[in-house]
Amino acid sequence: MPHHGNEEEHGAAGDRRDESRDENQKPVIHDNRKVDPKTGQARHPDQERAAAGEPDAGDALSQAEDILNSVDVPAAESVAQGAGAGEAEELKNDLRRLQAEYVNYRKRVERDRAVAGEMAVIGVLNALLPVLDDVDAARQHGDLADGPFAAIAAKLENALKTYGLVRIDETGVEFDPTIHEALIQQPGPDVETDTVSQVLRSGYKSGERVLRAAQVIVAVPA
User: Fold this and answer.
1) Which stretches does DSSP call E strand in the chain?
2) How far apart are the first and last CA of the chain?
3) Which are the contacts of 124, defined by CB distance < 8 A and separation ≥ 6?
4) Region of poorest pLDDT, from 22-31, 155-164, 187-196
């Protein structure tokens, strides 16, 4: 068929069409290597996807739940075509185990975090016990009967109560070796069991944990 026009123009147009077809047919290659060959640094696919603006896939538990919910045991015709029902059920069981392990791991992490926070509070309370002893001594000598220092001491004690600090300074109660330290024992004419008759130094506890036992004088049955 004869060409109308310049043959060079037809040739250039054909070359552009061929180049466009080649570009559309070029394979897309994803680099999934865990180590960057140029820098030698470890790659983090999740962070790279987040930096590229891809949607967050959620935590491992959510991913396991999504996969678990999306897996269906194949019907009889699917099995006949080669899909194994046993393999699908085994996959579901594996995902259930993964989900249970992750839940247990998360509970353990939360428990360890709570224990770490409690130990930090206890450390602060223990550091302030000598200050509270000085406040008690000043109060016994009448130095905190009134004035700004009395107000400051009261604020300090109230602030520590909000963190669970409880004073052990009761008298007339039964001696308890878990919270009392007996320094002196004296016969008591009107007691039937070992009883705290006087507190020499207050003790403290936080929740069920005894920070320091109270030093007491104990009245014992005569």
Assistant:
1) 165-168, 180-188, 195-201, 203-206, 209-212, 214-221
2) 133
3) 163
4) 22-31
| pLDDT higher than threshold 50 for residue 176 | yes
d(CA 211, CA 179): 9
What's the burial of 99, exposed, middle or buried (CB within 10 Å: 0-12/13-18/19+)? middle
**What CA–CA distances, in Å, run from 181 to 95, 138, 168, 184?**
55, 23, 11, 9
- CA distances to 170, 194, 217 from 174, rounded to whole Å, are 10, 6, 12
Please tell us whether the domain made up of 164-222 is placed in CATH 2.30.22.10.
yes
Structure-block tokens of residue 181: 């330290």
> Which amino acid would we find at residue 218?
V
For 160, counting Cβ atoms within 10 Å of its Cβ (0-12 exposed, 13-18 middle, 19+ buried), the class is: buried
What is the arithmetic mean of pLDDT over 57-82? Answer: 54
Structure tokens belonging to residue 19: 């180049």
Lowest mean pLDDT, pick from 2-11, 86-95, 132-141, 184-193: 2-11
Does residue 45 or residue 107 have the better pLDDT? Answer: 107
User: Rounded to whole angstroms, how far apart are CA atoms 163 and 63?
Assistant: 39
